[in-house]
């Protein structure tokens, strides 16, 4: 279940040989150095910490530089832990898009676009009332409970509030194309978040081809 | 738009079409799949608009067939698009000619663009 971090470049479309159109997202994944390997013996579980978001060395703090020096990694400013069998990699390795192959299914995790404070119609997909015929209930929340019994509002009641800007995972996106030369990863469909946002791309958890 | 997307699209752009724009009359050769067979269909009409960028570009062609207006939208980079012939250049003052939908007969025409080379030949 290994993965790498990638930057969302944007969306476009691809044509199949029969003229079928596929909406695709282009991701740019610069090679991610393995900064730390966690083993069951020492840490109780196996995982790999990878670095991403390359930066000039002069822009990094000395503690970070010290860590990177230990493994000989290029200057990166952000780190992410990815669950991965620890025997497969060692510190100093570099993970890149070649770990995926076209046709494979991947899971992507990112932060969705922030939508601010939203009502129930947008936030929970409720339908809202009539817009006309003298109604005063156009997009309101509606009733939120019963009366003297139970005399309270149940927990988890759907109400307006801050929407978006949360962690979202999308499963089973198909890899359409990889470009090891340009470090591009092309997935079928959309991924969470705005352009230039970072996305964690993992091999499909269920191991389905 | 991100430069990487533009470059990516440029690598995937399949078709090289002649230069045409809204107002031109074109003949479009488009492959149609009928069960097992692939047949080339010809659609001739006035280009109403071109839109999009990169591999997502499309153009709309309108013709009047048996008194009924017919419009088709073709993706410019579709592998099903065989070729496009420009029959007549139109002179227009706008890039989208949707007003033609409301016009009938003589009013639904586009003036021809005459260039120096046309007059000479």
Q: What is this structure's SSE topology?
A:
The complex is a heterodimer of chains A (209) and B (121).
Chain A: E1 3-15, E2 21-28, E3 32-38, H1 40-43, E4 47-54, H2 62-71, E5 76-83, E6 94-95, E7 105-111, E8 114-118, H3 120-124, E9 161-164, E10 167-179, E11 184-188, E12 198-203
Antiparallel strand pairs in A: 1-2, 1-12, 2-11, 3-4, 3-6, 4-5, 7-10, 7-12, 8-9, 10-11
Chain B: H1 3-12, E1 25-34, E2 37-51, E3 58-65, E4 68-75, E5 81-88, E6 90-91, E7 111-112, H2 116-120
Antiparallel strand pairs in B: 1-2, 1-5, 2-3, 3-4, 6-7
Could you please describe the fold and organization of this structure?
The complex is a heterodimer of chains A (209) and B (121). Chain A folds into two domains: 21-28 and 101-127 and 156-204, Elongation Factor Tu (Ef-tu), domain 3, CATH 2.40.30; 31-95, Double Stranded RNA Binding Domain, CATH 3.30.160. Chain A has helices at 40-43, 62-71, 120-124; strands spanning 3-15, 21-28, 32-38, 47-54, 76-83, 94-95, 105-111, 114-118, 161-164, 167-179, 184-188, 198-203. In chain A, the strands form three sheets. A six-stranded antiparallel β-barrel of chain A has the order 1-2-11-10-7-12. In chain A, strands 5-4-3-6 form a four-stranded antiparallel β-sheet. A two-stranded antiparallel sheet of chain A has the order 8-9. In chain A, a hairpin with a 5-residue loop joins strand 1 and strand 2 (21-28). By secondary structure, chain A is mainly β. By secondary structure, chain B is mainly beta. In chain B, 12% of the residues lie in helices and 44% in strands. Chain B has helices at 3-12, 116-120; strands at residues 25-34, 37-51, 58-65, 68-75, 81-88, 90-91, 111-112. In chain B, the strands form two sheets. Chain B has a five-stranded antiparallel β-sheet with strand order 4-3-2-1-5, with no helix packed on it. Chain B has a two-stranded antiparallel sheet with strand order 6-7. In chain B, strand 1 and strand 2 form a beta hairpin. The longest helix of chain B has 10 residues, at 3-12. The chains are: A mainly beta (209), B mainly beta (121). The interface between A and B is medium-sized, with 18 and 18 residues.
């Amino acid at each position: 279940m290994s993965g790498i971090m990638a930057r969302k470049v944007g969306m476009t479309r691809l044509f199949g040989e029969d003229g079928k159109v596929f909406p695709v997202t282009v991701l740019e994944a610069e090679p991610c150095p393995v900064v730390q390997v966690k083993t069951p013996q020492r840490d109780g579980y196996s995982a790999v910490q990878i670095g991403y978001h390359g930066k000039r060395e002069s822009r990094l703090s000395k503690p970070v530089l010290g860590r990177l020096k230990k493994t000989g990694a290029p200057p990166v400013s952000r780190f992410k832990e990815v669950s991965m069998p620890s025997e497969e990699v060692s510190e100093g390795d570099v993970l890149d898009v070649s770990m995926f192959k076209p046709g494979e299914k991947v899971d992507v995790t990112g932060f969705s676009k922030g939508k601010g404070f939203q009502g129930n119609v947008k936030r929970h997909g409720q339908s809202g009332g009539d817009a006309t015929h003298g109604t005063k209930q156009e997009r309101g929340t509606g009733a939120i409970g019963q009366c003297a019994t139970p005399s309270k509002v149940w927990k988890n009641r759907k109400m307006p509030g801050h929407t978006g800007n949360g962690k979202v995972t999308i499963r089973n996106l198909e890899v359409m194309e990889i470009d090891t030369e340009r470090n591009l990863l092309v997935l079928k469909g959309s991924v969470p978040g705005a352009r230039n946002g970072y996305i964690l791309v993992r091999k499909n958890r269920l191991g389905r081809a | 738009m991100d430069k990487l997307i533009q470059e990516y699209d440029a690598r995937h752009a399949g078709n090289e079409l002649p230069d045409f724009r809204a107002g031109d009359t074109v003949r479009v050769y488009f492959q149609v799949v009928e069960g097992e067979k692939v047949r080339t269909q010809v659609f001739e009409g006035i280009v109403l608009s071109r839109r999009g960028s990169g591999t997502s570009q499309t153009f709309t062609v309108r013709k009047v067939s048996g008194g009924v207006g017919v419009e088709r939208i073709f993706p410019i980079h579709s592998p099903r698009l065989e070729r496009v012939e420009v029959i007549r250049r139109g002179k227009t003052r706008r890039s989208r000619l949707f007003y033609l939908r409301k016009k009938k007969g003589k009013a639904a025409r586009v003036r021809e663009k005459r260039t120096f080379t046309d007059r000479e030949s």
